[in-house]
Write a structure and sequence with these properties.
Structural class of chain C: alpha/beta
Oligomer: heterotrimer
Order of helices and strands of chain A: HHHHHHHHHHHH
Largest sheet of chain C: 6 strands, mixed
Order of helices and strands of chain C: EEEHEEHEHHHEHEHEEHEEEEH
Number of helices of chain C: 9
Chains: A mainly alpha (about 230), B mainly alpha (about 280), C alpha/beta (about 290)
Distance between the termini of chain C: 34 Å
Helix content of chain C: 25-40%
Shape of chain A: globular
Helix content of chain A: over 70%
Distance between the termini of chain A: 37 Å
Structural class of chain A: mainly alpha
Radius of gyration of chain C: 21 Å
CATH superfamily of the largest domain in chain C: P-loop containing nucleotide triphosphate hydrolases
CATH architecture of the largest domain in chain C: 3-Layer(aba) Sandwich
CATH class of the largest domain in chain C: Alpha Beta
């Protein structure tokens, strides 16, 4: 176990976007729920859970997409005995960990205030946490892997936001086939087939693990990380 | 505009275009977007090419290519904004800003050149996708007029929308981290374009609608691929209805002008921020 | 730590050959590396630091094979590396930056880390600025931070690429002395354009050109390469057309040129004693 100080440094390296993104995302989601002029319980609850299932994963995904590339001290990092990909993985864990803290606290407040239970497809207070865990891990892993492949936050961030938007705009289309249903990010608040929920959450977590593994393989080629960024 | 300013603008535009258009990601991101879109079912293609989708009645050329524009614009503008988000701050990161600032070239002209050059380069793949599908439709349905409608739609819907997005994508990362801008931009795009106005206060269907509700409605007479959608104008019970006059050709042109003025204001703001930091 | 390089080739994408069949042995102690821009010095240093993989050939450092992951990690545990283009984290103070890199180098014990960082800040004369953010540091101060981080984990192999760039003359001399004192039983590989830095610190030197080794020997042997090829000419006309002008000093009756050329570049030219810079130029400007 490495000293806590090292994790603190990596948290700073993850950047302001990783720190500010999740709370801003939750704040925007809550604002949208408050702005709903037809505060039917279920609709408002859906928007509140949507903040956890949609907004937090987007913030975490874009933050993870910004971890690879543009490290000013990359040569020093690559010459250190601590593998740089482990350092990047540590930054990803910090980023997702902070998103989890923000989402977990928000979920606790929603459970305590009864809003969680007002969305019929809430899946309970415990297993229901997969509402935000699975898409946050999934989109975070997409961002991390895209960052590793593109070596730049602009392209990786664009891919994460586009994937998120496609699933927003074409939620029904995305769920017409089983693979699409299993990889659909918003199965709790916009899920068309409730029976697929558990499989969907597990599939997202599995895909996240596979994408992180892919990213680590790509990042092992240290030469790609110095110079030649697609500027 | 003095000749020196024009030369600065021209040179900046040319080189920013060249630098941006040869970035691999400018091409890869729209390509992956289209692939993802096709993988999940590609409704726009079925609307255009599958007669069964429309009960044997293919959409007429104008409706088809305008509908195509809405989908392409709504989807690919996300990547467009995200890809442009680092273009202005990049000068500082690559340490070329002091060199450029030491030249007699006016910073404002350089900014406009960067805006137009980088924006145009990032838009090239979007236009390739759009006109590619439009041309395929024109051939498939033997309707060459589709290309004319595509050009008109591009001019009054896509270009103003992209100019609006580009101005904010360039300048907002001066005051917030670029990744945070990307998150907020996507949230805005959904909220300001797609959210139904009677659900919560939104800029959708107002004069400040980058997806081009007023030109779609009043200039192109587009009401959705099935003809039963509303793209602009007041919504009963919605807030901000004072920004939703009845759609007419005049309000459509006003809407385009509003987008361009807001874009110019964003650029002016960015210019002021840079000048204060210099 | 002895470095053995045989048949080392590195070809980048696009077919650019940075190293072309390089054979070189670097013994313990100070060793200089000279070469023009694009000669392959930085690529060689990056390969030795484990950043870049060779296209072909064999490299061992202290007996560790650099083609294996385990070998690279073993070398990196005892490595101090100062890259040519040193990047730092501008939001960290000098002390925090060194503390962070010490952690990455495996110095987990807080007390040891604090002591070592404090010592090195003293060595590079940055104790007074240790708690300022690196954003406000001058180029020379950043370079000193870079030197400090390279020495953090008491490395057995120190690879320094253009270490004196940006340093003022006093800092340069101090750094050269520091490197010489540090070398001892360790290996210090010093790459630079400043030939004088090599002359003042290194017993042995290698010269690269277009990815190949064109000289390996002592500093005296390198200097000797220019014997009979260094000329002094005083003229009020244009500089001699033949050879490479090393210096031009205003002189009574015109300008005194120091020229490296195979034969007297002017009838008035007279031979002079060569210096190491002349040897390097004689070697690289045939």
């Amino acid at each position: 176990m490495r000293p806590l100080t090292l994790w603190r440094y990596e948290a700073r390296r993850a950047g302001w976007a990783a720190l500010l993104g999740p709370p801003i995302a939750v704040a925007l989601g809550v604002s949208a729920a408050l702005a709903n002029p037809r505060p039917g319980d279920a609709t408002t609850a859906r928007i509140l859970l949507g903040a956890l299932e949609m907004a937090v994963p987007l913030a975490a995904g874009v933050a993870c997409a910004s971890l690879v590339g543009r490290d000013p001290a990359v040569e020093l990092q690559l010459a250190a005995p601590t593998p740089y990909r482990v350092t990047l993985l540590r930054r990803m864990v910090v980023t997702l960990g902070w998103a989890a803290v923000v989402a977990g606290l928000t979920a606790a407040v929603l459970i305590a205030t009864g809003w969680w239970a007002r969305w019929p497809a809430n899946h309970g207070p415990f297993a229901g946490q997969l509402t935000w865990v699975a898409p946050t891990a999934g989109l975070g892993a997409v961002g991390f892997a895209a960052g590793a492949v593109f070596r730049g936050p602009a392209a990786a961030g664009a891919l994460v936001t586009t994937l998120w938007t496609i699933q927003q705009f074409f939620g029904d289309l995305a769920q017409r086939h089983l693979p699409g249903r299993l990889l659909y990010l918003f199965a709790t608040t916009r899920g068309a087939v409730p029976g697929d929920w558990t499989e969907n959450r597990l599939a997202l977590l599995g895909a996240a693990a596979a994408l992180v593994a892919l990213a680590l393989v790509v990042l092992a080629r240290s030469e790609r990380l110095i110079g030649e960024e697609d500027e | 505009m003095t000749s020196q300013t024009a030369r600065t603008l021209g040179a900046s535009l040319r080189y920013e275009f060249r630098m941006q258009v040869r970035k691999r990601s400018v091409w890869i991101v729209p390509a992956l977007t289209v692939v993802l879109f096709l993988l999940i079912g590609g409704s726009l293609l079925r609307d255009l090419f599958d007669p069964n989708e429309r009960k044997g009645q293919p959409a007429e050329a104008r409706t088809a290519v305008v509908g195509l524009a809405v989908q392409v614009h709504a989807l690919l503008s996300i990547g467009f904004g995200c890809l442009l988000a680092d273009r202005l701050i990049r000068d500082d990161r690559l340490r070329v800003a002091p060199i450029l600032d030491a030249t007699p070239a006016r910073p404002g002209a350089r900014l406009v050149g960067k805006y137009l050059g980088a924006g145009a380069a990032t838009a090239v793949p979007i236009l390739v996708v759009y006109f590619g599908f439009a041309a395929a439709y024109a051939v498939h349905t033997d309707a060459p007029q589709a290309l004319g409608w595509a050009l008109a739609t591009c001019a009054v819907v896509i270009v103003p929308g992209l100019l609006f997005v580009a101005a904010f994508a360039l300048t907002l990362p001066l005051v917030m981290p670029a990744p945070l801008f990307r998150v907020i931009f996507v949230g805005y795009w959904l909220w300001g374009n797609v959210v139904v106005p009677d659900m919560m206060p939104t800029l959708a269907r107002t004069l400040v609608h980058p997806l081009g509700g007023y030109p779609l409605d009043a200039l192109l007479d587009f009401h959705g691929i099935d003809g039963d959608d509303t793209w602009a104008g007041p919504v009963p019970g919605a807030t901000l209805n004072f920004l939703r006059p009845a759609p007419t050709p005049t309000t459509a042109w006003l809407s385009i002008a509003v987008l361009l003025v807001v874009a110019a204001a964003a650029l002016a703001g960015g210019h002021a921020v840079r000048a204060r930091r210099a | 730590m002895r470095i053995e390089i045989s048949g080392l080739t590195k070809t980048y994408r696009g077919g650019v050959a940075a190293l072309d069949g390089l054979d070189l042995t670097v013994p313990t102690g100070m060793f200089g590396l000279l070469g023009a821009n694009g000669a392959g010095k930085t690529t060689l240093m990056r390969i030795l630091a484990g950043l870049v993989r060779p296209t072909s050939g064999r490299v061992t450092v202290g007996g560790h094979d650099m083609s294996t992951g385990a070998g690279r990690t073993a070398v990196q545990r005892g490595l101090g590396y100062l890259p040519q283009d040193l990047g730092v984290y501008p939001d960290l103070t000098a002390r925090q930056f060194l503390d962070y890199l010490a952690l990455l180098k495996g110095v987990d014990d807080r007390t040891t880390r604090r002591r070592r960082v404090g010592e090195l800040l003293e060595v590079v004369a940055l104790t007074g600025d240790a708690d300022r953010r690196l954003r406000g540091f001058s180029g020379g101060m950043r370079q000193r931070v870079g030197i400090a981080q390279a020495l953090l984990a008491d490395p057995q192999l120190l690879i320094v690429d253009e270490p004196t760039a940006g340093l003022d003359p006093q800092e340069r001399i101090r750094f050269r002395t520091l490197l010489s004192q540090f070398a001892g039983r360790r290996t210090v590989l010093l790459s630079t354009h400043i030939v004088d830095d090599i002359a003042q610190t290194c017993g042995e030197v290698a010269v690269l050109a277009r990815g190949r080794l064109i000289f390996r020997g002592t500093v005296d042997e390198l200097t000797h390469r220019a014997r009979g090829r260094v000329w002094s000419v005083v003229t009020d006309g244009p500089p001699p057309a033949e050879g490479m002008v090393v210096s031009a000093l205003p002189h009574e009756g015109g300008t005194r040129y120091r020229v490296v050329a195979p034969a007297a570049p002017d009838p008035r030219a007279r031979p002079v004693e060569p210096a190491i810079e002349d040897g390097y130029l004689a070697l690289t400007t045939r």
